[in-house]
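// run 5 | inverse folding | seed 20
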């Protein structure tokens, strides 16, 4: 008899129920059980775990794991908590996640391009003052990260007429029909991109190399008056350095969806800063139904071939 698939996570009851229902519908031939419902014999036999912020102690009680399927695109916590000889980790690579993230990037790029923060401030002062219009074609968006999410965002921005520049760890092209301001790699390339962008969008994975990447020096290399969108991970950005640049009037605005501590503590000055928009980590939500289809395809391929899906490179962190 085939061993069940373990479902491990620290989601609330509603989220857990939604994911379990979606997984059951996507692969009715499999039995998916939450960790507490697994018998000792089943725990010893489980080969696949589907996880969403799992407890390491529970993962450790599944000795036969062949691989771990994450329900998130970001896997830095899993990589950090994984034993050196632990099972491979498979990220969620979901076209629907890429679509929703690209949608969010475009929406909040429009928010900045059309001066919405300034109009909101003027409304608070009952000030009727039209501002000069800057078209998408006159606006360069710098994308940090050209993986699946960055490439999808570049395509949406290009369709809207924005000029796009991109930076990635290794050379990667922008989609062919995107108005390009260039693609860059390396430290020198990062400096060039920072100086180009009217709006900088961070979509990088969190790794040892990207932690604290956007610090005082690199924020200082940004174009004066530029704006920042961080939809990646909070630890990539040094919040105190960002606040210093905003307070000095050197950056115009920051839209932040991710933070080093989440939920963002009520005492954080980011909540009340006039040049900061705080979002509660909603830019790229995982769709249970879409994620379940991706997971089901990976599981079926493994059952048929014994091959583990493409896994995270532990040295790179993604």
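// decoded
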């Amino acid at each position: 008899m085939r061993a069940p698939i373990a479902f491990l996570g620290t989601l609330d009851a509603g989220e857990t129920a939604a994911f379990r229902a979606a997984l059951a519908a996507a692969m009715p031939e499999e039995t998916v059980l939450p960790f507490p419902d697994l018998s000792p014999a089943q725990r010893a036999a489980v080969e696949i775990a589907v996880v969403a912020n799992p407890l390491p102690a529970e993962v450790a009680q599944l000795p036969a794991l062949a691989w771990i399927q994450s329900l998130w695109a970001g896997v830095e916590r899993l990589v950090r908590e994984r034993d050196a000889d632990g099972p491979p980790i498979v990220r969620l690579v979901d076209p629907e996640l890429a679509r929703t993230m690209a949608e969010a990037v475009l929406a909040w790029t429009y928010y900045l391009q059309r001066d919405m923060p300034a109009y909101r401030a003027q409304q608070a002062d009952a000030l009727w003052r039209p501002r000069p219009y800057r078209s998408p074609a006159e606006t360069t968006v710098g994308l940090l990260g050209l993986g699946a999410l960055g490439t999808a965002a570049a395509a949406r921005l290009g369709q809207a007429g924005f000029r796009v520049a991109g930076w990635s760890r290794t050379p990667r092209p922008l989609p062919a029909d995107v108005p390009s301001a260039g693609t860059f790699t390396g430290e020198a390339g990062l400096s060039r991109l920072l100086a180009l962008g009217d709006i900088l969008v961070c979509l990088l994975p969190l790794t040892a190399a990207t932690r604290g990447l956007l610090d005082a020096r690199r924020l200082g290399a940004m174009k004066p008056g530029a704006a920042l969108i961080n939809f990646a991970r909070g630890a990539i950005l040094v919040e105190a350095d960002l606040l210093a640049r905003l307070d000095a009037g050197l950056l115009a605005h920051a839209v932040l969806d991710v933070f080093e501590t989440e939920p963002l503590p009520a005492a954080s000055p980011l909540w009340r800063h006039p040049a900061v928009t705080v979002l509660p980590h909603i830019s790229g939500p995982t769709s249970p139904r879409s994620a379940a289809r991706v997971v089901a395809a990976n599981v079926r391929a493994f059952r048929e071939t014994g091959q583990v899906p493409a896994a995270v490179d532990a040295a790179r962190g993604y």
